[in-house]
Amino acid sequence: VQLVESGGDSVQAGGNLRLSCVASGIASSTDCMGWFRQAPGKGREGVAGIGTDGITRTSDSVKGRFTVSRDNAKTTLYLQMNSLKLDDTAMYYCATGVYCANVLSPNEYDVWGQGTQVTVS
After folding, report:
1. CA distance 87 to 100
2. What is the per-residue burial (b if ≥16 Cβ within 10 Å, else e) of 54-80?
3. End-to-end alpha-carbon separation of the chain, Å?
4. How far is CA 2 from CA 26, 27, 116, in A?
5. What digits encode the pLDDT tens for the residues 57-102?
6. At residue 25, does pLDDT exceed 90?
């Protein structure tokens, strides 16, 4: 399984971005996909995720501003980010896991992309 993120950019506060994550070689048993971010000097934070049942979950810090979605083939994961804030500046990663009891926990995932940088100024 390989994950490739794209869509990161430098934007002004209040702007919007859409991140994409294309998964290749994904196993049919892959259950969950999620977005995480890591700012300099901070730990990896769960942003949004989708479980096997299609139910999505977003972190309190982005709720109402970010939306996660996935195509029907489960090969592309998206993160629509609206009303971006300075605190949203980070490297954003997507990940897949076989089973995720908590789609926002990085410990649930075993395959990670290389990340795409989002900078809000």
Report:
1. 27
2. eeebbbeebeeebbbebeeebeebbbe
3. 34
4. 7, 11, 15
5. 999 999 999 999 998 777 899 999 999 999 999 999 999 988 888 9
6. no
